[in-house]
Amino acid sequence: MFTDAPKRILCIHDLSGAGRSSLAVVTPVLAVMGHQPVMLPTALLSTHTGGLGTPARLATEGWCSAALDHYHSLEMEFDCIYSGYLASEAQVSLVEKAFDLWPRAIKVVDPVMGDGGKLYSGLTPGLCQALRRLCSRADLVVPNLTEACFLLDEPMPSQLTREQAQALAARLGEQYPAAVVTGLPVGRFLMNAGVQKGRSPFTVQRVKIGRSYPGTGDLFGSILVGALLEGQALSAAADLAADFVADAIAATPEEADSRYGVQFEPMLGRLAKR
Ligand code: PXL
After folding, report:
1. In a mutational test of the pocket of ligand 1, which residue from 13, 21, 216 has the highest number of ligand atoms less than 8 Å from its CB?
2. CA-45 nearest atom, ligand 1
3. pTM to 2 decimal places
4. I need a labelling partner for 197 at 20 to 30 A (CA). Which of 19, 91, 235, 257 fits?
5. At what angle do helices 145-152 and 125-135 cross, to 10 degrees?
6. Residue-wise pLDDT tens digits, 76-97
7. Which residues of the chain fall below pLDDT 70?
């Protein structure tokens, strides 16, 4: 399924001009890793919704649907379909349409729904239901702890042991073919725990830096996808992504306005030169 040839990836995320999230992160990361990201911007926003006020928005669902038809009419093939933040049921339907049109593509769903134990505002019960349905079609889901607990219908713990982190991943592995759950607080570490059906769960951990930024889930997810498509094992891909995100946070001056995300651009070359 995986080789080291360049891969074409349909990236279904919003395009937020400023703030280092979604396509503004996913596109450069996958490109520098040698892949061909094809962008399907589910909406145009001036910024992400994480604290920079009310973004200017332009709806693009109709355009996206026509773009999918165009790509299909060109007999374009995708090795992977990678979806992120989706703000409406119509946007979820676009991903489902892409899954229907390219059934052989590897389907990676980041179920962007919340953080810090809370669901994002605007997540209607209908949208939550649609995101759950989307996850049920994925080959790999990449939730954070809040989203994982929501998908599993479990209360969110404030701390976990390594064994509990592995058990959480194992429960996700009963529901999905593969999962990597990010941002698990385990003592002085932040842990990611992953699983593939039929295999033992794994964990990767970094010392907690104690600063959080928008877009780090997109940074993690896109490096994970890029490395998987290079042929790396899920655990190695998670390790690479965790390293890069931790280093990008460390490289971002503490006094920088956190709403503008992590300053990962000077580090991108590292993803090319491996
Ligand atoms: O990084 C996730 C994300 C993507 N896009 C938009 C967001 C968020 C998180 O808040 O608001 C528009």
Report:
1. 21
2. 12
3. 0.97
4. 91
5. 90
6. 999 999 999 999 999 999 999 9
7. 1-5
